[in-house]
Structure formats: structure tokens, C-alpha cells
Amino acid sequence: MDKSHILSISVAVVGAVWFLVHHLYNSMWFRSERLRRKLWMQGIKGPSPSLIYGNLPEMQKIQLNALTSTPNNADIVAHDYTSSLFPYFVQWRKEYGPIYTYSTGTRQHLYVNQAELVKEMNQCISLDLGKPSYITKRLAPMLGNGILRSNGPLWAQQRKIIAPEFFMDKVKVMVGLMVESMQPLVRKWEDSIEAQSGVMADIRVDEDLRGFTADVIARACFGSSYSKGREIFSKLRKLQTAISKQSFLFGVPGYGLLPMKKQNEILSLEREIESLIWETVKERESKCKEACSSEKDLLHLILEGALNDQSLGEDSSKRFIVDNCKNIYFAGHESTAVAASWCLMLLALQPEWQSRVRAEVAQVCGGSLPDADSVSRLKTVSKINEHISVHIPHYC
């Protein structure tokens, strides 16, 4: 090999190395640094990141210190959960204010803790705001392109169709169905206590509440029962478990990639769920045509909204209906069950508030089951619900 060939190979190797280094520098530092500088020029500061891992080492250190400084689990339950689960957010909020920036690896994040600003950002459709793409991409098999995952004009379009179905006058109509679904669960708990000498019993409250909220959604929204939708809920839970193997926030181990077997499992579950939902939709559509009832459930109203929207074609209408049914099936029952479990746990820690709630329910409802009117007059219960809604994270 002569000198010219050696020189050519050397130049090619050096060029390839330079290109690789330049690409890594751009992707791992320069883009994030440029974004940070733009934010800093607007007065938005934050912790200084390292070259490769960003603020991940500091986040892990703060979290470890918080765990070792917590004397027992009672403190975690009795106080705001964010200080235990996300102590780095709390610490940085004290240092940099309610708006700051931080990074996880190559991703730059903007932390916003001002309700009005968050509301304004959520309603903005002219900018690329909303749910971050690195999260929504992984949630696609579970939520499709429904309202909980979409951004911008698509989100606005879906919200225009769906939001009116959750106005208070329509929610009030569903209270009777909620009470109807709750009665078997209360009887189940009472039977469990009686079977254990009528004093105390071990009950998996979280599982029971998941079944209860799923039944409410199936009855109120889709005109069926939980037993009919059991397969859909079961497959959604399996899909959630499969997707949860990916790291959403830190995203470093495996770079969010899953083995082919797991990817195939996710794809298979996604197809099965969509097929089951579409069967329910077509069955419901057929019943609606036959019955022509004035009382329409949520699924019927979503069907009408999608079919009457001139901007949606036939394929888009089907996609819209299936995706948003997936959103309501999963996110609705899961988040409500978590909130109810948390509420019962807090009441168990506060016997005084338990007594106040019981007294209020006895006074307002007497010996009757609650209805929409009596629920609206339960002021103490409303205060507790407001407290729970502030301290429980929401999906949208």
C-alpha cells in the first residue's frame, strides 16, 4: 500500500471520527445548551447539568437523601406525596422559583408550577406545546391518538366533540348508575366483615375500586356492564404492564427500547383491544338505531359527534371513536380508582374527618341512597374531594 492510499484512509478515518464527535456534541450538548441559554435569557434558570447525564445524578442524590431522612412511612402518607416521590422538584422550586429548567440526559425540560400558566399552555394550539413526544410515542398503543395523547389542532378538535358530554348536567344523570354499581361492592365488603366475626377483615380495596370504576364507565359511558367489558379492561392492564417496562422520565437504560418479543406482545394486545372496542361500538350503534332512545350514553354521543363532524372522513371517524374509547376505558377508571383509594387511606388516618363525613351523609341522605341533588349538598365531602383532586396527578 503506497503513501497516497494510507493518507486517503487516514483522512477518511479522521473525517468519520470528526463527524461522529460533532454529531454527539450537537445531540448531547449543543442543542440543549442553546435551549437553556434561550430560557436563561428570559429569566428561567435551573440546576447546571453534566455533559452526558444532565441533572440525573443530582436527582438521584436528592431522592436518596430524602429517603434516608424520612423516619417512617407515616410521614410519606400524611403529607404531600410530591415531596417524597419527587423531592428534587420541591428542592429546585425553592431554589429557582415556580418556573425553572432541568435536563435528563439529552432532554431539556421546563418545569411550570403556576396553574394559570399551565392552563394557558394547555389551551394553546398555535405552538408545539402539550404532552412531550418522547412520552406520548410510547403511550400510543394504549391511548392511540385520542384526547389524552394528542396535541395542537387535533386535541382541540377532539375536545370540542367530547368536552360537552362531561358538563355537569350530563354527569348528574350518571349518578344513579354510579350508586347502582356501588351497591354490590358495599355488600361484598359487609359480607367480608361479617365472615370475620363482624369486627375486621382484610380487603384489597384498590382492586375492588378498580372493578367498581370500570363498571361505572361501562354502564354510564358504553351502555353495558363490567362483565361485558372485563376482557377489554384486562387486556388494557396487560398492555399497561408491558409498556411500563420502558423508562419514561430518565429513559437511559436501553434507550427506551424493548426486546422484539415484548414489542410483538404490545402490538398484539393493541390489535385485540381495538377489535373488542370496535365490536362494542358497532353493537351499540345497532342498538341505538333500533331503540332511538332519548337517553343517550357517552358512546352514543361520541358516535354522533364523530359522524357529524364534516372534517372527519370515514377512516378518521373510526380512528377517533376507537382511540377515545381507549382513553376513557383506561385513564378514566384507573385515575378515579387511585383517587378513591387515596381518599379512603387519608380518611382512615383521620378518624375525626370520618365522623364528620358520616354525620353529614346521615343528615343529608337520611336512610336513602344518595342522588345528584343530595351529593351536591355534601359540603364536607366536597372539601375532601377538592383536596384529593389537588394532590392526585391527572392524566390530562
Automatic annotation (TrEMBL):
Major subcellular location class: membrane
Protein name: Cytochrome P450
Pfam families linked to this entry: p450 (PF00067)
Family statement: Belongs to the cytochrome P450 family.
Gene Ontology MF, one: iron ion binding
Bilayer topology annotation: Single-pass membrane protein
Spans traversing the lipid bilayer: 6-25
Compartments (UniProt record): Membrane
Cellular component annotations (GO), alphabetically ordered: membrane
